[in-house]
Q: What sequence folds into this?
């Protein structure tokens, strides 16, 4: 073995830097991406979501009930977005995921309160994501004692001291025990698919280009559409196998409830996979090497994971971040898979989350078709 | 006879660089056209325009009677294109590669066609071997067989014999001539002069411009070169190199090409070159013998000319 040569070491290090600089995309990734991600995720992620959309069903319509609702809003965790007359309407809002909470003030609330009967206020929470509702529920629990204190003055003052004049009864819907796995495991289905499906197709084309087989493929009479579908369909099959394994494990290892129709879920899954594959194909028409394809995949994967509501509560994010999150198929797929498995949602409740995925697929597919050339120009 | 390739003024620009500049080529049915020129002269770009892989920026013409711009898609079905780099799937077996090609081109009676090709190649026993494991010569044979599978009427071969041993090259050219005899039209690019001499017709391209076309004899005659073999009996290699430098300095000498222990010395002005010969022979020690210029001499001269014209 010969002695370490500084000159040789420097020659190699120098060459490495030159190559790094040549690879423009890598260079951009090294410099730009950390800044972008720091700003994006730094401002977007919030593990203590406030202003959660809430529906109030006020059967009492008294000064006390209005005061109570105001107290609920004042905690900062709730934002009243709907005030339906019937509980059934509020229930549907909860199922569709339009609201996170439903607060029901029972009829005769004021009277019961005045009689000191400690009337119960019912709060139904969408607990599919326990971390999103935990703090809000804690705030509600503290409410009972303080909410109506200044309303109960004068002749009613004696009612004010403990025990609390009202009872707040919280129902954690869909995941009553607040099991984190029930939320995470179905979500993982979407996350794993995003990773594998996009990457596999992104490699499909760049591999042809890197190995020099692309030119021959292009010289054949195969049309862009034939090449794209031919390359995508086998991976849809792979995706189904993967999904079946994950769902099987979700049931066997984590006892995740599966209330809704599996056929519906797999239908949505097919669409979700197709959308991801279309994106992967688009990446593969842009990337010049497999390394670039991998980098682009990660560039898509990270915000998918962080802004979709998988890792952090979606409703904790500021409006602009939520708007950005709506773009990612994972955001919608998470709502579908959690809805179908945990809430037992059917086609009607699922549809609002299906079409954004379809739209994503159409756009990605169209871009891929435009990018894919029949020529080498 | 019908022209299988008939293109005029083909031009292709990549950014500011003009890779192919006004190239016109006509090849008749059953003809083998040798496409020659230095690296980067535009051979591959021209071939890609002929088979619809690149869209020309200017120029027009037909390939197999189909418009090269409008009918690019239909040309693909009728042409066998062998790329410069081995472009079959290295992670597929020999048989799987052939089967894939046959399916993409919708070859009738696919299984039989693949089996026949395997038998012809003598690869029947190795059909399950991965294409990536083949040696250079075998890869080339396989690639040629793959582009013949759909019975094209025109073969475009881009440096098919680069990196292939002489035996395999000989077999390859025998096969090409057999195909041409059956009416196949072939355009083949190469760097080897012995291969150029095997072609019916030559086209020489440099810096994107077609400098000369015609048969090997025509190209030589057209060059107007007078060539001598110059030897220094008993002289050292170093003496020969010195002589080459001295001759290059002579205004009458346009090209000096070393050929083993001799030099090929050519000039345009035969009378001026003759005077150089007389003077050199008189000074003694050198033997000058008049020969037909070789293609090599002609092409070295052509490249020089093109460079002078550019300068």
A:
């Amino acid at each position: 073995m010969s002695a370490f040569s500084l000159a040789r070491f420097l020659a190699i290090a120098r060459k490495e830097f030159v190559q790094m600089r040549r690879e423009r995309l890598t260079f951009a990734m090294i410099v730009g991406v950390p800044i972008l991600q720091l700003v994006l995720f730094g401002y977007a992620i919030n593990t203590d979501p406030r202003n959660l959309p809430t529906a109030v069903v006020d059967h009492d319509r008294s000064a006390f009930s209005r005061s109570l609702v105001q107290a609920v809003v004042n905690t900062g965790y709730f934002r009243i977005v709907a005030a339906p007359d019937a509980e059934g309407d509020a229930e549907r809002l909860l199922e569709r995921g339009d609201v996170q909470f439903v607060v029901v003030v029972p009829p005769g609330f004021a009277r019961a309160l005045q009689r000191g009967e400690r009337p119960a206020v019912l709060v139904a929470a969408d607990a599919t994501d326990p971390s999103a509702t935990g703090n809000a529920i804690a705030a509600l629990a503290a409410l009972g004692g303080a909410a109506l204190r200044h309303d109960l003055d004068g002749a009613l003052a004696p009612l004010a001291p403990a025990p609390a004049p009202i009872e707040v009864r919280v129902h954690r819907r869909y995941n009553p025990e607040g099991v984190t796995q029930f939320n995470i495991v179905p979500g993982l289905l979407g996350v794993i698919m995003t990773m594998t499906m996009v990457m596999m197709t992104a490699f499909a084309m760049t591999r042809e280009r890197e190995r020099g087989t692309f030119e021959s493929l292009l010289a054949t009479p195969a049309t862009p559409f034939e090449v794209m579908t031919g390359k995508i369909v086998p991976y849809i099959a792979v995706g189904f196998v993967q999904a079946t394994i994950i769902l099987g494990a979700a049931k066997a290892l984590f006892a995740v409830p599966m209330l809704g129709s599996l056929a519906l879920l797999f239908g949505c899954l097919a669409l979700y996979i197709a959308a991801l594959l279309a994106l992967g194909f688009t990446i593969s028409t842009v990337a010049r090497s497999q390394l670039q394809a991998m980098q682009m995949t990660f560039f898509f994967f990270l915000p998918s994971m962080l802004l979709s509501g998988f890792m952090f509560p979606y409703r904790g994010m500021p409006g602009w971040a939520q708007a950005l999150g709506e773009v990612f198929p994972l955001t919608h797929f998470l709502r579908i898979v959690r809805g179908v498995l945990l809430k037992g949602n059917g086609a009607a409740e699922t549809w609002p989350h299906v079409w954004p995925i379809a739209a994503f697929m159409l756009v990605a597919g169209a871009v891929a078709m435009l990018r894919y050339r029949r020529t080498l120009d | 006879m019908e022209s299988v390739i008939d293109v005029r003024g083909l031009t292709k620009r990549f950014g500011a660089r003009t890779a192919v500049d006004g190239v016109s080529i006509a090849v008749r049915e059953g003809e083998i056209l040798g496409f020659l020129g230095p690296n980067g002269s535009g051979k591959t770009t021209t071939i890609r325009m002929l088979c619809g892989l690149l869209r020309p920026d200017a120029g027009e013409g037909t390939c197999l009677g189909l418009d090269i711009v409008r009918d690019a898609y239909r040309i693909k079905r009728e042409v066998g294109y062998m790329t410069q780099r081995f472009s079959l799937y290295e992670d597929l077996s020999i048989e799987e590669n052939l089967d894939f090609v046959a399916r993409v081109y919708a070859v009738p009676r696919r299984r039989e066609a693949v089996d026949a090709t395997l038998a012809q190649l003598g690869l029947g026993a190795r059909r399950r071997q991965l294409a990536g494991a083949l040696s250079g010569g075998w890869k080339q044979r396989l690639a040629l067989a793959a582009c013949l599978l759909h019975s094209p009427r025109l073969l475009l071969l881009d440096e098919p014999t680069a990196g292939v041993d002489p035996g395999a090259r000989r077999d390859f050219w025998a096969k090409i001539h057999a195909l041409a005899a059956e009416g196949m039209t072939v355009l083949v690019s190469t760097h080897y002069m012995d291969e150029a001499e095997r072609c019916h017709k030559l086209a020489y391209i440099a810096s994107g411009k077609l400098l000369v076309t015609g048969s090997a004899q025509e190209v030589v005659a057209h060059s107007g070169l007078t060539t001598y073999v110059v030897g220094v009996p008993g002289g050292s290699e170093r003496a020969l190199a010195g002589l080459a430098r001295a001759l290059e300095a002579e205004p009458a000498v346009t090209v000096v090409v070393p050929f083993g222990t001799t030099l090929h010395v050519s000039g345009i002005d035969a009378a001026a070159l003759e005077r150089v010969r007389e003077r050199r022979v008189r000074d003694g020690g050198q033997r000058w013998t008049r020969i037909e210029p070789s293609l090599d001499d002609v092409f070295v001269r052509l490249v020089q000319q093109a460079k002078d014209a550019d300068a």
Remarks:
- The first helix of chain A runs from residue 6 to 22.
